[in-house]
Design goal:
Length: 80
């Protein structure tokens, strides 16, 4: 891919050089592969963010439950 990018950059400087059909096929293949990798990475990132959000919500729920249990415990101690 780097070689193709260099060739594309050089095309601006050298009007005589053109891309061969093999170059175009390689560019399309590399672009398709890179697009697939980007999609997979984006999906993993989204999944990780969702898991993190779920863990934060669960932690907050547990903290609230602990606080309620502590309050209930203090109330029971006050009755005795």
């Amino acid at each position: 891919m780097r070689q193709l990018l260099i060739k594309l950059d050089n095309m601006n400087n050298e009007a005589a050089e053109t891309l061969s059909s093999d170059d175009l096929i390689a560019i399309r293949r590399q672009l398709a592969e890179n697009q697939t990798v980007l999609r997979e990475t984006f999906n993993r990132l989204r999944q990780s963010q969702q898991e993190t959000e779920m863990a934060v919500r669960r932690r907050d729920e547990l903290n609230a439950r602990v606080a309620q249990l502590e309050a209930d415990y203090e109330e029971l101690l006050g009755e005795f």
